[in-house]
# Entry
Amino acid sequence: MVGFLAIGITTTVTAALRAVGDSRTAMVYNVISNLVNILFNYLLIYGKFGFPELGVAGASWATVLGQCVAFLIACRVLMRKGGYLVFCFRDLLARGNSEAGNIFRVGMPAALEQLAMRIGMIAFSVIIATLGETSYATHQACMNVLTMSYMIGQAFAVSSTTMVGQSLGKVRSDMAVFYCRASSMIGVLASGTLAFIMLCFGREIMTLYSSDPQIIDCGAYIMKVVALIQPFQGIQFILAGGLRGAGDTKSTALVSVVTIFFLRPVLAAILVFGFDMGIKGAWYAYMADQITRSLLIYLRYMQGKWKVIRFNV
# Structure
């Protein structure tokens, strides 16, 4: 809770920097933040070099310290003279209400989307947890691999959001379309490469997480499902990023509510409990969620309404 304010402001500054094309500065202070986190994990969990031995609580304090370091650097970036982004409280007060209206218009659907996603993910995890420790351990290992694969899609999604927003700001919808297509092509190639690795080396990947034959065998099968998800996931991340860059956060929020909040947990419950398919059924539900979400995002993108969204200025 102590770190909420710091991480909230830092996340906002990071998004602003990415929006103007400066993703390098955000990368630098986030790397520094993580290094501080790792260092104080070692010092506070085990009580090294005179620091108190706090155990799990030490890990929490290390996280907060890392967040506060990122917060301070991000604030320093906004206060520097001559930068493209400079925060001035006096100018903020002098502006009208239209800017605040635009912020809420874009931000509230995005907030509701994140809330729906978190509730859906918790419900999905609870369903798998009922299957026992082995199934849950397998699920966690596969989710770790899947989360790592998010990095590729999210990276190109940030690029898509930035370039689409800038292009539409210049009234160049043709360039916005070009950037979305280019990002999607690169993202699909990267996702395809990752899918190939998972198909060929899924069992070897699982051995990094466990020596239990049950976990390895089941995890290797789920890795094939994860591999099939990759191209859909990549396209979905990138096109959704483009829609957000255009300010079309309502459609992405609606898609997330339909798929993650409803489809994934409901279908998982049906396959796991109704058809007794176990953890494999849950991951089939995850795949159905990703494919459906990709299709809906693609259809929304192809409608082209995102090109003509206007804001009060």
